[in-house]
Amino acid sequence: MEHVVVVRSFAEPVVFADVQAMEDKFAWCLDIRNIRFLHSYFSIDRRRMICVYEAPDAESVREANTQAGLPFDVVWSATIHRSARNTPGTAGTT
User: Fold this and answer.
1) Of 55, 62, 64, 85, which residue has the fewest beta carbons closer than 10 angstroms?
2) Do 3 and 77 meet the contact criterion of CB atoms below 8 Å apart?
3) β-strand 48-55 against 2-9: which pairing, if any?
4) How far is the C-alpha of 73 from the C-alpha of 39, rounded, in Å?
5) In this predicted structure, what is the pLDDT of residue 19?
6) In degrees rounded to 5, what are phi and psi of residue 92?
7) Average pLDDT per run of 10 along the chain, which is 94 residues long?
8) pTM of the entire predicted model
9) Domains of the chain by range and CATH?
């Protein structure tokens, strides 16, 4: 499984609950592709959003978003790197 990032932008400010409702309505699109939602980051101006999923590959997430009619700018696979400062039990923690 990979971490997959979806970047969304909106011409006008949107309400997070409205975007979430669209995604909830099409949760089956994620389920049939073995995709698990992890996190969303929503900009303060409500015009940009980043969603992170765990999925077999980026193409599965791209297909699910397309089938669900969810807007996206780009979908890409990611590797998570954590700073030693932010990882409990490692040198450099505060």
Assistant:
1) 85
2) yes
3) antiparallel
4) 17
5) 87
6) 95, 0
7) 97 92 90 96 96 98 94 95 70 47
8) 0.82
9) 2-81 (3.30.70.3090)
CB burial of residue 23 (10 Å; 0-12, 13-18, 19+): middle
Q: Find all residues with CB under 8 Å of 41, minimum gap 6, and list them.
A: 49, 50, 51
Sign of CA dihedral 51, 57, 58, 61: negative
* Contact yes or no for 50/5 (Cβ under 8 A): yes
- Residue 11: closest CA among 73, 61, 65, 62: 73
- For residue 80, the model assigns a pLDDT of 85
77 is written with which tokens? 């696979």
